[in-house]
């Protein structure tokens, strides 16, 4: 295969892609591919890359072919030194300053230098083929190294597949300032010929159609099998949330997962739904205990939740339902089961489909988790030093974390809308796209796990505590809910509620949600710390009212027409999303059944208002309301109600039975 002019090849590829589908590659990326290429050397991996100047193109998962100048390692006389593949698999195009302008169009060159590599390329007519898979996480990795010396041509393009996770290498090199990357990259110019990425019209069209129909990063079982066969997936994390909303589970070899767990599921100890925060078994549960021997619970993967976990090396992830071994019915105590029950209630009430979103906030710190633990989580230094809210400059300083976070979530079946600074120092918010409520709750727990593990990898700490600092705003998880029927928002209508045009169902749903909030408050604010958010002037609600687009109200009505929805600002970032969404749905659906009218709209500053119903002020108060709630018992059933009453009471008692440093400092000498 004689080498050709590189600009000619780039222009040909540009024409192919424009003809195939303009949706497959952004026009900015197409423009930059025609620009001059130069060699750049990455200081971390000592690899040289061909870098395209300018903006970022995105192949959106389309499989292309790159004919590199790399030896296939099969002794076929390619004439190019063999490359150590493992040394570059983890390099991220999106996370090194030097490569950020590459437009994700890069080709690896052999170890040893630009001139030697270019000479070898010009001399060699037999080159190996590398498969480049575009990935929203910004990673480049070899999916295949295949000798094509005898054919002298690239193989036929394969069908587009899902994004492939890259090796989990550190995404940034930090200097003495923990959140800054090193940027001292050397560069040199060199001529270099390479054949273009090839993409057929059929493959591009298929990729564009698939992108519309499916969320990127979600997998079918067949796709998982293919990735396992190609050695792209080695591990499957099988998880469920405990009562706190924490992910627990097992790691399977991918081959054994396909052989066994896909059909039969797996088992775990029943104590997973009956422990405290320290994983200590707690007596007093009917569901599990020493008296019952802490037997097994059956965990059945919900394959609709199967996804790439791009922040982990060669890993997929799936969430499980807890199922009774004998009846095969959902175990009613599991948080995911509780939400599924309310989804079924919505369907039975008139084929209603709950659509939802959650807005998670969190604080990010310069110390890592181990350092934070050694300091008893006190005196930690946040990544910022002034108010973060909508602040672009401060946000840019923290892109070492949020850039990879957005990419990894996007590549792992969690579509991202945006990220931004929040009002607290070091506080942030990353928002994902709304979905059906079960999928949204799944995204919520995957999101939290991804960000925690990413923080661990990057040597920083993140917390989803509701109120980590009393002098800073708390971190919330505002819930957005609407009901849809036949593809239309059932909240939209021509009835009047204050200044809002809405349906009767909207009005009654709001009335029921507000009525039952105090007795279900434990599901929105489940921990002792949760109640320290509810302070006047802190952006957190304090009194139970609703208002039109008013951030001082716990029930904020926003949108219009098909976007009309209710935002509940009560839940903290520490809530279990399955339980919080289930509580909201159960309350609102009860409002529709019984045509519960909401109170009159509130206008003005809720913080200054008098004689309004207060939100519960402590976990103890909320637990007492939950324990005596007939509605909560009807919603959950007697056994499940007892289970969660005991769970929340145990957490409350753990706090009451602890003597704090504050108490000793205040009373030890002075009393």
From TrEMBL:
Residues 335-671 form the GS catalytic domain. InterPro entries: Gln_synt_N_sf, Gln_synth/guanido_kin_cat_dom, Gln_synth_cat_dom. Signal peptide: none annotated. One of its GO terms (biological process) is biogenic amine metabolic process. Pfam families: Gln-synt_C (PF00120). It comes from the Eukaryota. Keywords: ATP-binding, Ligase, Nucleotide-binding. One of its GO terms (molecular function) is glutamine synthetase activity. Belongs to the glutamine synthetase family. This is GS catalytic domain-containing protein. The lineage of its organism: Eukaryota, Viridiplantae, Streptophyta, Embryophyta, Marchantiophyta.
């Amino acid at each position: 295969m004689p080498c050709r002019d590189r600009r000619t090849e780039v222009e040909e590829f540009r024409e192919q892609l424009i003809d195939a589908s303009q949706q497959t590659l952004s026009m900015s990326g197409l423009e930059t591919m025609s620009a001059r290429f130069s060699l750049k050397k990455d200081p971390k991996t000592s690899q040289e890359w061909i870098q395209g100047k300018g903006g970022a193109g995105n192949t959106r998962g389309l499989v292309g072919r790159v004919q590199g100048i790399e030896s296939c390692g099969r002794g076929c006389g390619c004439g190019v030194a063999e490359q150590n593949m493992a040394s570059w698999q983890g390099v991220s195009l999106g996370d090194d300053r030097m490569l950020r302008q590459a437009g994700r169009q890069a080709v690896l060159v052999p170890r040893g230098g630009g001139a030697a590599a270019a000479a070898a390329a010009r001399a060699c007519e037999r080159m190996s083929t590398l498969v480049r898979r575009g990935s929203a996480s910004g990673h480049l990795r070899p999916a295949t190294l295949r000798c094509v010396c005898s054919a002298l041509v690239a193989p036929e393009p394969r069908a587009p597949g899902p994004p492939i996770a890259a090796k989990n290498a550190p995404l940034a090199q930090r200097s003495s300032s923990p959140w800054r990357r090193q940027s001292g990259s050397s560069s040199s110019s060199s001529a270099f010929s390479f054949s273009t990425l090839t993409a057929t019209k059929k493959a591009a069209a298929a990729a564009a159609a698939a992108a519309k129909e499916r969320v990127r990063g979600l997998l079918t079982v067949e796709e998982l099998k293919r990735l396992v066969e190609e050695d792209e997936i080695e591990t499957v994390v099988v998880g469920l949330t405990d009562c706190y909303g924490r992910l627990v589970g097992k790691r399977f070899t991918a081959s054994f997962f396909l052989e066994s767990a896909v059909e039969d599921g797996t088992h775990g100890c029943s104590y997973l739904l009956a422990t405290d925060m320290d994983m200590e078994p707690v007596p007093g549960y009917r569901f599990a205990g020493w008296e019952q021997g802490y037997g097994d619970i059956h965990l059945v993967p919900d394959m609709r939740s199967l996804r790439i976990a791009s922040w982990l090396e060669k890993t997929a992830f799936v969430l499980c339902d807890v199922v009774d071994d004998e009846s095969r019915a959902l175990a009613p105590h599991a948080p995911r089961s509780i939400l599924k029950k309310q989804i079924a209630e919505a369907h039975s009430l008139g084929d209603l489909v709950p659509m939802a979103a959650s807005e998670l906030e969190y604080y990010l710190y310069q110390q890592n988790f181990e350092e934070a633990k050694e300091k008893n989580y006190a005196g930690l230094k946040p990544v910022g030093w002034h108010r973060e809210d909508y602040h672009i400059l401060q946000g840019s300083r923290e892109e070492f974390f949020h850039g990879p976070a957005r990419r990894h979530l996007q590549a792992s079946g969690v579509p991202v809308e945006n990220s931004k600074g929040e009002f607290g120092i070091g506080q942030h918010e990353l928002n994902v796209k709304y979905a059906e409520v079960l999928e949204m709750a799944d995204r919520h727990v995957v999101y939290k796990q991804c960000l925690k593990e990413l923080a661990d990898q990057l040597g920083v700490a993140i917390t989803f505590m509701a109120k980590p600092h009393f002098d800073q705003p708390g971190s919330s998880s505002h819930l957005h809910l609407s009901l849809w029927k036949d593809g239309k928002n059932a909240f939209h209508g021509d009835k009047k509620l204050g200044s809002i045009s809405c349906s009767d169902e909207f009005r009654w749903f709001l009335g029921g949600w507000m009525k039952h909030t105090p007795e279900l408050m434990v599901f929105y604010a489940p921990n002792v710390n949760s109640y320290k958010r509810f302070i006047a002037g802190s952006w957190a609600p304090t009194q139970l009212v609703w208002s039109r687009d008013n951030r001082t109200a716990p029930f904020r009505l926003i949108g219009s027409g098909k976007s009309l929805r209710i935002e509940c600002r009560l839940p903290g970032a520490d809530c279990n999303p399955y339980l919080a969404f289930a509580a909201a749905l159960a309350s609102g659906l009860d409002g529709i059944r019984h045509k519960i009218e909401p109170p009159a709209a509130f206008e003005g500053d809720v913080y200054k208002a008098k004689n309004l119903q207060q939100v519960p002020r402590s976990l103890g108060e909320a637990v007492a309301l939950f324990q005596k709630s007939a509605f909560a018992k009807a919603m959950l059933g007697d056994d499940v109600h007892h289970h969660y009453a005991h769970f929340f009471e145990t957490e409350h008692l753990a706090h009451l039975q602890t003597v704090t440093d504050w108490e000793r400092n205040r009373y030890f000498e002075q009393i």
